[in-house]
UniProtKB/TrEMBL annotation:
Organism field: Sphingobacterium arenae
Record's protein name: Uncharacterized protein
Length: 176
């Protein structure tokens, strides 16, 4: 029998029922890794983002799935197929779930940490991030990034028209 070893915070969260803390003097020696990256940009307080993928590509997906680490199984399958149709994958985009209590629901901090150029809000209302109103399947260009607001995959599963509208705009948004 082999011992289970992981430093993936989502896996640890699923496996353990207790909260773990790292003593401050040892926290400086913990190397940050993709999926559990530390951001020390706030007045001495370390804020943690738990995400999946690669933030260096500039493509960020923001979602809010309280019942799953990222997506429901059906939504993850649709997401992977959508990315694949555009020659992308989970490994070359970043995905952050704002339902994870470790992730701040603060757009300025998200921008500072991820430094994205293209952001897709999947079922996340812009107003919840203190952004101006953006109609579904449309986008707003900012100084640094363009934000595309669309439906969650569950909403698209329930309405084929929403899926069609999403796809027509999304492929233009990602390629531009």
């Amino acid at each position: 029998m082999s011992h289970l070893k992981t430093n993936n915070p989502v896996a640890l969260q699923a496996l353990m029922s207790e909260t773990l803390f790292i003593p401050k003097e040892k926290a400086d020696f913990v190397a940050p890794r993709s999926g559990n990256v530390l951001d020390g940009g706030t007045g001495g307080e370390t804020e943690e983002f738990i995400y999946q993928g690669d933030k260096s590509t500039g493509i960020l997906f923001i979602l809010r799935y309280p019942d799953f680490p990222y997506f429901s199984p059906q939504a993850e399958d649709a997401f992977v197929k959508t990315l694949g149709a555009l020659n992308l994958s989970f490994e070359n985009v970043a995905v952050v779930n704002l339902a994870n209590s470790h992730n701040p629901n603060d757009f300025k901090r998200i921008m500072q940490f991820f430094q994205p150029t293209k952001i897709t809000l999947l079922g996340v209302e812009p107003i919840s991030l203190k952004l101006p109103e953006i109609a579904h399947n449309s986008y707003m260009k900012g100084k640094v990034a363009t934000v595309f607001h669309t439906f969650s995959f569950e909403e698209m599963f329930a309405d084929v028209q929403k899926k069609r509208l999403f796809w027509n705009e999304f492929k233009t948004f990602v390629v531009s």
